[in-house]
Amino acid sequence: MSNRENTERYLLGSRTADKWRRIGAKRRAGVALPLYSVYSAESAGVGELTDLKLLGEWCSNTGISIIQLLPLNDVGGDFAPYNSVSSFAIDPMYLTIKDIKDADVSEFIGDITRLKKKYRPLFGRVNYKIKQAKIDLLWKIYKSTRTDNITDFTSFKENNTYWLNDYAVYKVITESNPGKGWQDWDDGLKARDQLTIENFQKINFERIEFHKWMQWQLLEQLEGVKEHLVAQNILVLGDLPFLVSRESADVWSHPDYFMLHLASGAPPDMYFAMGQKWGMPPYEWNNIANDGFIYVKEKLKYAENFYDMFRIDHFVGLFRVWVSPVDDYNTPGGYMPAEEYLWEPHGRRIIEEMVNATKMLPCAEDLGTVPGCSFHVLAEYGIPGIDFQRYYKDHGGFRPPHDYRLNSAAVCSTHDSSFWVNWWQFEAGTIDEKLFDMSCEKAGIHPGHVKYCKKILFDKKRSKHGRLYWNEDITSGQLVAEILGSSPDSIHSIIYAYAESYKEKEKFLNYLGFTGDINGISIELVSKCLETINLTNSIFSIQLLQDYLSMDKELLKTIGKYNSRINTPGSVSRNNWSQILPLSLEELSELSVNESIFRITQNSERA
C-alpha cells in the first residue's frame, strides 16, 4: 500500500473522517501569517480582508493550498490577537472601507485616500491608531446610510442573537467609560441589571446598531474572501484563541462561564519560579457543560462562515490548565483539574463536543508541556498537532522526516519563536544566559565562580544577545558539572540544555544532509531546510511567510536581523504583534523566489 493510500486510510478511519472527506485527505503546503502584517496598494494602514485575495493568487502560483491566519478577533488596547475582547467579533480595522456593502462611499473617497497616506507602512511596524481612525470614518459613513431596509443586515442580526447584542452593548459601554474595566462600571451595568441595560440601549441605540453594522460588513467581506479562495482551491485555517481577555464581552455577558478569582498561565520554570500569569480567566467548564456547551457551539458555528479548518490554540489546556490566584503573586499555582487521571476524560468531553458541533477540521497547537494523553487523543481523532522542527528531537538528535507524525503540521517556526534564519544565526548551539544564571543560583553556586566558569564553558566571541555558545572542548554534561563544582542532579536544567544544544548546528546539518558552512547563513541552507520540512511525513507543512521569503537574498537581510520577529512571549513591547512585511503583496507576486517555493511544494508532492 502506498504512503498516500496509508494516509487516506488512517484519516478517513478517524473520528474526524467527515471533515477529511470534505477537504481531502492529502498532503498540503501552507503559509501562516498575521493579517495585519501584509499590505497592498489598496490597503489603508493595515492588512485588510480583501488583501487575502492577492495572497491567494500568490499561493496558487507557489503550490500552496492553506492560508493560516492568526486570530482576527476584535482586540483591546494591547492589540495582542490572543487577548481578544470577543470570541466572535472580527476587528473592524481589517475592513476594506471602499468595498463595504449597501453604502455609498463615493463622497468619502478623499477620507480613505487621506487614511492611506497618513497611515502608510513606515518603519516596518503597524501604526495601530489606524483602528480608531477607521472606526471614526465608518461612523461617518454609517450616519449617512439608511440601514433599516437592508434585508441582509436584518438577517445577520437575527441569526447572531446569541452574541451580537451583548458584544455591541459592551463596546458602547466601554466607549462611555474610557479607562475602566467592566468590573468598575456602575453597578447596574456591571451586573447587567435588565432595566439598566434596556435604558442604556434606548439611549445609545444608534451607536449599538453601528457596532452591529460593522460586524455585518466584516462578515460579508470575509465570506466573500473565503468564496474567492475556495474557487482557487485554497483552504483557510482560522486561529481561535483558547482564552479570552478578562476585559471582554464574553466575560461580562457570561461571568458564570469563567473562574474570575483565578488567572490562567504556565507552570513554573527557570524563568518564573512561581509560574507565568497571563491574566485571562480559566473556564468554568461545568457551567458551560450544564448549558449544553452552547457557548462553544456558537463560536464554532460563527467561525464556519470564514474558515475551512480551525486551530485550537493551547490545545493541551483542554486537558488541564495552569492557574493561580488572580491578585496573589506569592501563592504557587497548579493544574486544574489537579488529578492527572481526570485530564483525559476532561479533554475528551470538550473535544467531542467541538468535533460534533462543526464541519470544520480542528487542528491543534500542542506545544509546550504536553500531557501524555494528548498524543493518543489527537491520533484517535485524526487531529493534526504541530511538529516543530528545531525541537523535534530524539536522544539529542533531530528526528528524520519519516518520523514526523502523519497527523501533524510540520513547521520551521511559529509566531512565538524566532524566524528560522534567526534561530540558526543567534540561538542554535546556545543556552539562554538567564536560564544558566538562575540554575546556578538555585544550585547555590557562588556568583563569582559562575562568572569564572562562563569563560571556560562558553565561546565569548560567538555568545551574543543573551545566548551562551558552548566551547567545543566541553564534551560532556559531566564535565560541565565538574567545572561548576556541582552534582549533575543539582544543575539538571543546565545538563539537559547542554545535551539539547551542544553541537546543535552540526547535528542539524547532518539531519539536512547539508555540507555547507556551519557558521554562515546562505540561500542554499535556507532552501535545504524548507525542502526537508516539506518532505516530512506530516499531512501539512505550514511555514511562516517570512521563512519562505528568507530564500530571497535581499529579503534575507531584513528578515535575518536579530530583533526581527512577530512576538516575544513573556514580554510587553511595541515590537510585539506589529511587524509588517518588507514588501507589498504586489511585489510579493513578482519575486523570482516564487519559482523555488513552487519547486519545493511540488517535489514534496503537496497540493
What report would you give on this structure?
By secondary structure, the protein is of the alpha/beta class. Among the domains are: 203 residues, TIM Barrel, CATH 3.20.20.80; 115 residues, no CATH class; 73 residues, no CATH class. The protein is 42% helix and 10% strand. The chain has 26 helices and 16 strands. The strands form 4 sheets. Strands 9-6-3-2-1-16-13-10 form an 8-stranded parallel β-sheet. It has a 4-stranded antiparallel β-sheet with strand order 5-4-7-8, with no helix packed on it. Strand 7 and strand 8 form a beta hairpin. It starts with a helix and ends with a helix. The mean pLDDT is 95.
Spatial strand order of the main sheet: 9-6-3-2-1-16-13-10
Count of helical segments? 26
Q: Quote the distance from N terminus to C terminus.
A: 20 Å
The residue-averaged pLDDT reads 95
Helix percentage range: 40-55%
Largest sheet: 8 strands, parallel
Identify the quaternary structure here.
single chain
Give me some keywords for this one:
alpha/beta, TIM Barrel, eight-stranded parallel beta sheet, four-stranded antiparallel beta sheet, 26 helices, 16 strands, 42% helix, globular
